[in-house]
Specification:
The radius of gyration is 20 Å and the shape is elongated. It has a single domain, classed as Lipocalin, CATH 2.40.128. With 303 residues, it is mainly beta. It is built from four helices and 14 strands.
């Protein structure tokens, strides 16, 4: 997915820095030098030495694509949609744990190889704003604008949800979600992620007295999968020298590669009191040979 937004443009700076300030989750160095940009061109060197090992370079590149895709993907929400006339707006803070090299690999861990100083933080932090709007027939649409903290990259995602079964006291709610998220502003990498998930949950009303329920508690859990697509933004000669290539989790794509359709498992809860909502969720993504865990918390307004 390619959007016309330069990583150095005023728009990218205002959106990124604004979201970081609001969420208070971005590291301080985000304001100077974009230290957390993913730089594929750095795969040719590590710790001051030239690297000419296409197999190792490709492995590092593919790990970064998988884990960054998992970090920016749309996250599942409660199993109940917001209803025909409902909507909500939430401010979220998402964190995903990455392969940052704490195992002491002398050749450098994948994220060390694409990090400006060779010293990544160990997490990808993505503060974001998400809007959900109810539609007829149990449908719901939404959009998310996020910022990869400490970098010049933003994210934009959209999703649709369908409440296949919801609102029955004797049955749990069941919702399916399909969406797409793109990384915006990286000069060397085009990255997009399609997400599909099924969520089951139940909403329990409660209040200060019997018959007066002013709040709702909604636990949920589910599973799904991602389709990750990454394309280096560089010449064929540079791609060959670095050992990188276009990769895709879509089987009908010429760039299809195993390992880019990871499964996901999620569990979370949402509590709403009046117009105020709080939510938290954990997502585990099976990115090739390891799990990429992530946590998302949010606060918002619901109508």
């Amino acid at each position: 997915m390619t959007l016309p937004c330069s990583p150095r443009s005023p728009l990218a700076r205002r959106v990124g820095l604004g979201l970081t300030a609001l969420a208070a989750l971005g590291p301080a160095e985000a304001l100077a030098g974009w230290p957390n940009d993913v730089r594929l061109s750095q795969l040719s060197s590590f710790d001051g030495a030239t690297v000419n090992d296409p197999v190792t370079q490709r492995g590092a590149y593919e790990t970064v694509v998988r884990e960054l895709g998992a970090a920016i993907a749309n996250k599942p929400s409660t199993a109940r949609t917001s209803g025909l006339h409902g909507f909500d707006l939430t401010l979220n803070g998402g964190v995903a744990w990455i392969d940052d090299g704490e195992d002491g690999d002398l050749q450098g861990a994948p994220w060390e190889r694409v990090h400006a100083e060779g010293d990544p933080s160990g997490t990808v932090t993505v503060p974001s704003l998400t809007l959900r709007k109810g539609l007829p027939m149990g449908l719901e649409g939404g959009a998310t604008l996020g910022y990869v903290a400490g970098s010049s990259q933003t994210t934009f995602g959209a999703f649709g949800r369908w409440g296949m079964l919801e609102g029955y006291r004797q049955f749990p709610d069941l919702t399916v979600q399909v969406g797409w998220t793109g990384l915006v502003g990286n000069e060397e990498l085009d990255l997009g992620v399609m997400d599909t998930s099924f969520t089951v949950g139940y909403t329990v009303p409660f209040g200060r007295s019997k018959g007066l329920n002013s709040a709702k508690f909604s636990p949920y859990l589910g599973a799904g999968w991602l389709k990750i697509k990454g394309t280096p933004r560089m010449s064929a000669e540079d791609q060959e020298a670095l050992g990188v290539r276009a990769v895709s989790g879509f089987k009908n794509s010429d760039a299809f590669a195993e390992g880019f359709s990871p499964a996901t498992i999620h569990v979370g809860t949402r509590m709403q009191s009046g117009d105020v909502l709080l939510q938290a969720a954990t997502v585990l993504t099976t990115t090739q040979d390891r799990l990429t865990p992530g946590v998302t918390v949010g606060i918002g307004y619901a109508y």
